[in-house]
Structure to design on (588 residues):
């Protein structure tokens, strides 16, 4: 069985995020970049499938040459190889443009299962997995908190606000996972060393047959055109409790003033 | 006259609160563009839904009373919406910006050549085009976005971004949808729906008040105290990642970067320090209350009201105080 895990290089959540005034896109060189934390759950699930069924797992990333550190990080969990799509024309793509590039890269490969994280920690639209599934004409089994593959069928528990749906489908399929699904392990030394020598295929948009004019900022279906920092918040009221719960009445007073009771 | 279409998010009891809020959003846009407000009900019937949607501003109601809508994953709803948009004059679609519905929007956008803006907190009309306000980077930056000309505009609306407003509306004009589900749409089958016990509390994404507990609770019993406080206020209960990772509360209640993003009228966090990963999921709450032993905890920097103290002293006293005041 073949599994592909698309991953994303994102700014470190703790770092500053800067919007570039000229391109109106996130300045990806402004802060530290890391493997998206949500991808780790997708990688862990793929590694479990590898251990259970001998699945071959490939990581897929869109990004510039500098993103190769992110690819090696993903490979260090014990994955088998990587595909990198890189092209100057990609910059500024929206979620659907990104999905078009990923779908083209996936269509170029043989696979049974694609495992995404349910969202990236930077843009957080959650649109990409379902859009990729639509472009590939496959089921989108997203928000999985449980995943089981049996022959050519797959069962997932799709998390929602009130619990989860049990869903069954045939392969191939596109899945996204939520963090409840597993506890990712840390890469070990052997994995980190081995990652340096795993095969990496670098492809351009032309290699994938994607029209450069159909992606990137020029053809984004949704564009941000104006931004401002959130206005600073006025300092709040801080009270200290004396150990008897005395502050509770101050808090209740405030809640009453604000009409919460 | 073109229509602004609202995809009604509902369960068997009726429309969710966010659906009625979206009708307000649609009415405000329609007032500027001269469009009418239409709603799409996809899935099994609920009592009085038609009256309720009419009373909140729906003038036209597309109705697909079929168990197929939720019997298969995502695609039946995509095909129903594509049918409506193909056969009628629809100028934009609004959907509840929650997990499963985002999938419907994404697949529909690919299918009908649309553009999607998720998690909008406001809509406006500029030069005849609908533009959306959206808060990004955990609420640190406020942006405006629009869908490119020639693409069908689709907007995901955040819960609590708009008020629910009753209007003196008649019953909406009912339009049945008729189409055959494709074979592809029946590939992924929903074999059962599992509901977790506390579904009687409001969902944290929709609740006006959310009570959240974190590492400082010390153990899972602390969440009984959180639930007690929540029930006095009719609130939902959420948790920080530290608490869900420790197994004290189910993951689907996790607020933060890798969990849910909420913006209630009031967020009240106990034993939560307010790491940036948590703030990314609650910073846009309209009012923030923090109860924490550590006066240096970063959550106090964004709190409207903070109590420095032991939550096990403060919260039980607060529960009693609130019960007294409510009589």
């Amino acid at each position: 069985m073949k599994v592909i895990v698309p991953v994303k290089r994102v700014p470190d959540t703790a770092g500053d995020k800067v919007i570039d005034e000229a391109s109106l896109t996130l300045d990806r060189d402004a802060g530290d970049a890391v493997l998206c934390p949500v991808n780790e759950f997708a990688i862990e699930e793929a590694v479990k499938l590898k251990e259970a069924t001998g699945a071959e797992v490939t990581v897929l990333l869109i990004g510039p040459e500098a993103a190769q550190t992110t690819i090696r990080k993903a490979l260090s969990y014990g994955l088998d190889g990587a595909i990198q799509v890189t092209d100057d024309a990609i910059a500024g793509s929206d979620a659907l443009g990104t999905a078009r590039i990923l779908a083209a890269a996936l269509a170029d490969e043989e696979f049974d299962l694609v495992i995404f994280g349910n969202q990236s920690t930077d843009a957080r639209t959650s649109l990409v997995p379902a859009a990729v599934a639509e472009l590939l004409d496959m089921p989108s089994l997203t928000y999985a908190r449980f995943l089981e593959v049996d022959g050519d069928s797959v069962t997932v528990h799709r998390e929602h606000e009130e619990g989860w749906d049990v869903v069954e489908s045939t392969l191939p399929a596109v899945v996204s996972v939520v963090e409840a699904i597993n506890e990712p392990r840390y890469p070990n030394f052997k994995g980190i060393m081995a990652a340096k020598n795993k095969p990496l295929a670098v492809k351009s948009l032309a290699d994938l047959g994607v029209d450069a004019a159909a992606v990137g900022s020029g053809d984004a279906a949704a564009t941000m055109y104006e931004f401002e920092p959130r206005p600073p918040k006025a300092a709040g009221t801080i009270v200290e409790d004396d150990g008897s719960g005395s502050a509770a009445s101050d808090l209740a007073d405030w809640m009453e003033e604000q009409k919460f009771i | 006259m073109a229509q602004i279409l609202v995809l009604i998010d509902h369960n068997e009891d009726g429309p969710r609160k966010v659906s009625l809020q979206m009708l307000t959003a649609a009415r405000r846009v329609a007032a500027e563009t001269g469009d009418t407000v239409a709603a799409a009900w996809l899935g099994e019937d609920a009592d009085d839904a038609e009256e309720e949607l009419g009373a909140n501003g729906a003038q036209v109601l597309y109705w697909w009373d079929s168990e197929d809508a939720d019997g298969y994953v995502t695609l039946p709803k995509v095909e129903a919406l594509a049918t409506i948009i193909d056969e009628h004059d629809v100028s934009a679609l609004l959907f509840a910006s929650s997990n499963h519905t985002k999938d419907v929007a994404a697949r529909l956008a690919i299918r009908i050549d649309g553009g999607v803006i998720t998690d909008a907190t406001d809509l406006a009309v500029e030069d005849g085009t609908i533009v959306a306000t959206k808060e990004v980077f955990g609420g640190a930056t406020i942006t405006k976005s629009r869908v490119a000309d020639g693409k069908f505009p689709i907007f995901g609306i955040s819960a609590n971004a708009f008020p629910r407003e009753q209007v003196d509306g008649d019953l909406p004009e009912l339009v049945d949808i008729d189409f055959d589900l494709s074979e592809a749409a029946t590939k992924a089958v929903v074999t059962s729906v599992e509901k977790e016990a506390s579904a009687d509390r409001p969902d944290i994404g929709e609740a006006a008040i959310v009570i959240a507990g974190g590492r400082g609770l010390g153990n899972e019993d602390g969440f009984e105290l959180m639930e007690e406080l929540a029930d006095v206020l009719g609130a939902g209960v959420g948790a920080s990642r530290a608490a869900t990772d420790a197994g004290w509360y189910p993951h689907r209640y996790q607020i933060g970067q890798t969990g849910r993003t909420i913006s209630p009228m009031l967020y009240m966090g106990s034993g939560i320090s307010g790491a940036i990963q948590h703030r990314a999921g609650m910073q846009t709450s309209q009012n923030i209350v923090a109860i924490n032993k550590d006066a240096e905890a970063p959550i106090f920097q964004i709190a409207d009201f903070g109590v420095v103290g032991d939550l096990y002293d403060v919260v039980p006293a607060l529960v009693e105080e609130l019960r007294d005041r409510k009589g």
